[in-house]
Amino acid sequence: LTAESVRLSWALAFLRGASPLGWEGAIYLFNMCLPQLFEIKVFKEKNRSWFINESVQSGGLLHFATPMDPLFLLLHYLIKADKESFQGKFQPLDQVVMDDMFPDCILLLKLPELETLLRHVTEEKEIDKKKYYKYSKEKTLKWLEKKVNQTMAALKTNKVNVSARVQSTAFFSGGQVSSDKDEDYVRYAHGLISDYIPKELSDDLSKYLKLPEPPASVQNPPSKKAKLSDEPVKAKEDYTKFNSKDFKTVKKNSKMTAAQKALAKVDKSGMKSIDSFFGAKHVKKK
Amino acid sequence: MENSYEESIDKRRVHLRPDTLRDPAPVSLHLLPCEVPVNRPTPVGRFFTPAIRLGPDGLEASFRGRSLRGEEVVVPPGFVGYVMTEEKAEVLVGKQNDHEREEQELVEPPEALERDFDRFMGATASFSSFTVWGLESIPGPDAKLRGALSWPSLAAAIHAQVPED
After folding, report:
1. A biological process (GO) annotation for this entry (chain B) (predicted)?
2. Chain B 43-102, CB below 8 Å of chain A: which residues?
3. Residue range B147-165: average pLDDT?
4. A104: nearest Cα among B104, B94, B115, B99
């Protein structure tokens, strides 16, 4: 170990632990230099292994570190604080972003352009050169609508490359043969975004976007799970129900509480998510 | 106690040694269509690789007497593949955004992020493509893996900043 490697090792840290988004064992990668937040997703398929040079590695996991909009995490704290303690009052950010379960959340406060970011979802006030913030649902919905639109555009672009898959594996909800209807794109984009926001807000967003009630066969829009694997459900609190499965990476082997067991039994038929994007074959409903 | 055990897991950070991302050696990677339940050195170059042939529909090889068909898959544009090794020798395959290669010039860290109970990992190798194998036939366009590989482009859209009004 050289002195330099010790010094450099501070530069990046994987932050793991229960995430504010409700994914137990979600992993974030925080780049201390930029600083920038990344989200790590794990691709896992049954019966896979790697040959890595002259060795074999079971599991066949593939991790993806993709840039993440920190506002999704911040938003969670803002909403929670607004609901639980501050109720419409302006608060300094360091009193909002606090989390026993995920103490590393304070790193979020180091992000550059934090103030610009927060303008999308909060109202701010400056008193004695200190900024105070208040969650604004109206602004947040507007912001989310833009997110949905921009995700929709990417879906359309992507469709060019993936049209075969779109047709065959329920890229869109419910295994219906996809159509070019914008509605399908909006719903799917809404589902993807919903993986990052509390359930309640997701419902509000759905109304805000005037998403029609999904047809009976598609009762649950593609939003429910942030899981890429077949791990059992380990949801923790109510709002996490929609994220009812967790990431594969952090095996916690913890015993499930009765409530968690109950959750594990929640009927997930018809639920679709990012998961289906990762190609799980939901072809049963035609 | 169950609780404190959980907590210690939760609070542990895994630090990635950025210097290891600089120029790890390229690695030869094969994603097999079967679970080999061990992690250990194995003479891939003696038994597997020499048997790979280019057939009419892609690469052909065999493993434990079963016939495999495979093809080369490239890492999504803008990304680099890394094989990560944790200091206690667990191997992960990671992909990091290209950006991360740029910010190696670290100024002073804002604070000591390392704690005693933290863990560390570093890249031991890098890759820009790997070979994915299917049993008897090449994993088709519907393969889960294909979907996963297009996740970065979708993630980019979900997480890109939106313009202010």
Report:
1. RNA catabolic process
2. 43-45, 48, 83-84, 91-97, 99-100
3. 89
4. B115
